[in-house]
Structures are given as structure tokens and as C-alpha cells.
Amino acid sequence: MIPILDTITLCDLEVRYRVGVPDEERAHPQRLLLTIELDLDVGPAARTDDLNLTINYFAVSRRLLRLGAGREWRLIETLAEEIAGLLLTEYPAQAVRVEVKKFILPETRHVSVRVARTRGR
Fold first, then answer.
1. Positions of the chain with pLDDT lower than 50, given as ranges
2. Rounded to whole angstroms, what are the CA distances from 109 to 75, 104, 112?
3. What is the chain's Cα-based Rg?
4. How many CB atoms sit inside 10 A of residue 40's CB?
5. N or C: which end of the chain has fewer CB within 10 A?
6. In terms of residue numbers, what domain contains 113?
7. Is residue 36 in some structural domain?
């Protein structure tokens, strides 16, 4: 039997992290938007109305808001990969997708990286 996977999405969570290749770019936190998709079967939580049987998206948002404290990354690719690993380690998602949007090129709306990871990979 194929498990049913539903998705919880946090769309464009605004965070301030130090990210960039040049030292000057990492000198101050910059605005990034994170879109997080967490795949799991929400059926048990929906049937029982029990938060403990799903992923608490408020807790996920608070965890990601704190992630940048005292940290820095050169590449948004590295940041996206780290977030995906953290989510699979700390929450019961079967798969995650993480998009990091950065507002660095004035000629574009944003630059982004999107990674998808599954448990055990």
C-alpha cells in the first residue's frame, strides 16, 4: 500500500540571515524568504483534531527564525540543504522541499534555490 502524503506549506517566511559570497554581503543580515513544504500523512491528526499527530507549523517557523542567530552562509544552496536536513531530523516529515529567495540582483524580482529531500536520502 502506498502511503498517502499530504503537504503543509509555509509560504515566504521572512527571515534575516547573513548570506553571500563577499564578506561585505555577509556583514549584515539580509532579508530572505523561505518557502517550506513538509510531506506527511495528516489523516490521523485531521481525524482526531490532535496537534501532536501532525507538524506544528508555528514551531517550524520559530525554529527557522532562530536559525540565523550567530550564523552565516556563503551560498543559498548550502542554506537550503541545511534547512532540509534540519526539518527531516527534527520533524516527522517524509519529504521536504525548501526554497530560499534572495533579493540581490536589482534586475530581478529574486534569485532562488529549491531543494527536495526525502527521509533516508
1. none
2. 18, 9, 10
3. 16
4. 23
5. N
6. 6-118
7. yes
For residue 16, give the amino acid letter. Answer: R
Confidence at residue 76, expressed as pLDDT on a 0 to 100 scale: 98
Q: Which amino acid is at 33?
A: L
1 belongs to a structural domain? no
Residues tagged active-site: 102
The CATH code of the domain that includes 14 is 3.30.1130.10
- Number of domains observed in the structure of the chain: 1
Cell triple for 22 = 563577499
Crossing angle of helices 76-90 and 57-67, rounded to 10°: 140
Please write the tens of the pLDDT for every residue from 32-67: 999 999 999 999 999 999 999 999 999 999 999 999
How many other C-beta atoms can be found within 10 angstroms of the C-beta atom of residue 71?
13
The pLDDT of residue 121:
59
Q: Which cell is 23 given?
A: 564578506
**Grid coordinates 499527530 are at which residue?**
53
Q: Is residue 59 part of a domain?
A: yes
